[in-house]
Amino acid sequence: MMMKNAPSRVEIHNEWDIVRARQSGRDYAKELGFGNVDQARIATAISELARNIYLYAKPGVITIEVIDDQGKKGLAITAKDDGPGINDLRQAMEDGYTTSGGLGAGLPGVKRLMDEFDILSEAGKGTKITARKYLR
Amino acid sequence: MNLNILQGKAKDGGELLILKGELDAYTAPKLKETLLELVDIEGASVTLDLSDTNYMDSTGIGVIIAAYKKVCKNNGTLIVQGLTPRVERLFDITGLSDIITIEDINKEETR
Amino acid sequence: MIDQEQMYERYKRLLAEYMEGKNEETLYNGQLFSRHMIECGVSPEDVLSVHIEIMREFFPNMDERLESSFDFLLEAMIGYGLAYREHQNLRFKQRQLETEIDIAANVQQSLLVSAVPEIDSLDIGVISKPAKKMSGDYYHFVRDEQNFLSIAIADVIGKGIPAAMCMSMIKYAMDSEPEQRTKPSAVLENLNRVVEQNVDPSMFITMFYGLYNEKEHRLYYASAGHEPGFFYSSQKDRFEELTAKGRVLGLDRSTKYREYEKLIMPGDMIVLLSDGVTECRTKKGFIERGEVVDLIRKRMDRSAQEIVDSVYKELERLQEFQLRDDFTLIILKRRV
Ligand SMILES: Nc1ncnc2c1ncn2[C@@H]1O[C@H](COP(=O)(O)OP(=O)(O)OP(=O)(O)O)[C@@H](O)[C@H]1O
Ligand SMILES: [Mg+2]
Description:
The complex is a heterotrimer of chains A (136), B (111) and C (336). Chain A is of the alpha+beta class and 136 residues long. Chain A has four helices and five strands. Chain A has one domain (8-134): 2-Layer Sandwich (Heat Shock Protein 90), CATH 3.30.565. A five-stranded antiparallel beta sheet of chain A has the order 1-2-3-5-4, covered by helices on one side. In chain A, β2 and β3 form a beta hairpin. Chain A is globular and about 35 Å long. Chain B is α/β, with parallel strands linked by helices. Chain B has a single domain (3-110), classed as Transcription Regulator spoIIAA. Chain B contains four helices and six strands, in the order ββαββαβααβ. The longest helix of chain B is centred in the middle third of the chain and has 16 residues, at 58-73. The relative contact order of chain B is 0.20. In chain C, α1 (4-21) runs antiparallel to α2 and α4 packs parallel to α5. Chains in contact: A-C, B-C. The B-C interface holds B 25, 32, 57-59, 61-63, 65-66, 69-70, 86, 93-96, 98-99 and C 155, 157-159, 200-204, 206, 224-228, 245-248, 250-252, 255, 275, 279, 286, 325. The structure holds adenosine-5'-triphosphate and magnesium ion (MG). Adenosine-5'-triphosphate binds next to α2 and α4 of chain A.
């Protein structure tokens, strides 16, 4: 099997694209050697990020790439869009704030599913979210 | 603990709100929203029918006071009718009965 | 933290044991084990994944469709895992908030607790209990050099934190009254202006304010829409309502308050209360004011503090230990 070194880029325009992004993330995760649970976690995180783009900021792009941080291997997911941006990041990251409040999903959920999480957003300009998960 | 608010027209042509149930800290916000919107027009005329309000506490009085203050600003009228003895006593103690028009139960027919 | 390996082995042992014998004891051990896993913060999807791995080990030739059904279940459990973690975090936050409120409640208590003065001619008893953690009831006693005792009892509409914050404002307004011994009507008129200016239109405060002249044994008082107290005349051996009319604070800027006066004879009693006392809701419905009087009468020969404590206990019991509203009861008894 050929190692997927090149990043995968999935543009998000419709719900179908969310599925494609998930699939691509899962393939990468599997190949890198993530276990079943982590594969499912990564797919769910991608789903949440892609769905946010689809709901609030389409079109946008989900990028999935393999990272190697001094021998620490893992997967980085980037969600980038030029949408309206998120005004109050602290609020958006708060548990129980999301519209689905109480389901634990949404951005705080993504943060929990992954090992690292970073978000940059500017009102009117767009949002860039990066999340990483490392192989144990 | 529940409050039903029925909206209709009063005999004098103004708005009529019939409150059925209990007006307390939990249900008062619901009344506040409806009532304050109704009185927020110049010359608003609103009648509150309390004959089926079987419980009211100070939070309920608070909403009526807020509405009264708005009505005064807007040169409107606020009428309260059908006070049960318990509620009437509350109106007396708080001094609301001297400043708000209270009418006896001549229950309107809401149609 | 739980050791991954250890968890795997223990789960596997329990599962194998159960598949062999299907006995209740193993299930009980499984229950204890799951408690342990929860304590260690193991997510549902982790448990499931261990289960799946073990099944693969036990049944290497498992039907492929059965195997993929596990993957599907795993995917579905990820969401539950997230909800579970959020729940844990919210619980933690709730505990934090509660601690914060406890601290605020202590601050409020130290602000509001007013020492009961020792006076030769008066026996004074007070009890004030919040329905929730913070109280919207307020009382104070201030005694000046000329032997005048001022007594205030107030009730902010609503309960809990908003009422308590408003209460603190009243306390500072009272503390900054120009002189201690002012006419009750003037005190209320001042406060009325403060409240009218500073408070949300649907917020209001009721207050009873009294000034007791210890030499002449006269009580001068005025009320801003406060739940009327009682006066007990020992000569007539009768309780009557301590009527005083006046609008609640914050209703109308220009309100004037009428002042009343009462001569207090030895053995007479003044009962002041907040509506949390009279709005007691029991199984049989609301308590009548007459019942409160009866409770007091039954205990009349005791000290003022004993009376209020015991009346509170009785009313607390009647409400099945759930106060619906802040509760304040004050009794002043002229010593014989
Ligand atoms: N890419 C984005 N562009 C602009 N706003 C966004 C974006 N992603 C999230 N938001 C804003 O942040 C809020 C929180 O997002 P989050 O995904 O946590 O919850 P949600 O989408 O409201 O609900 P759910 O739990 O169903 O995902 C959203 O309601 C939305 O207003
Ligand atoms: Mg979302």
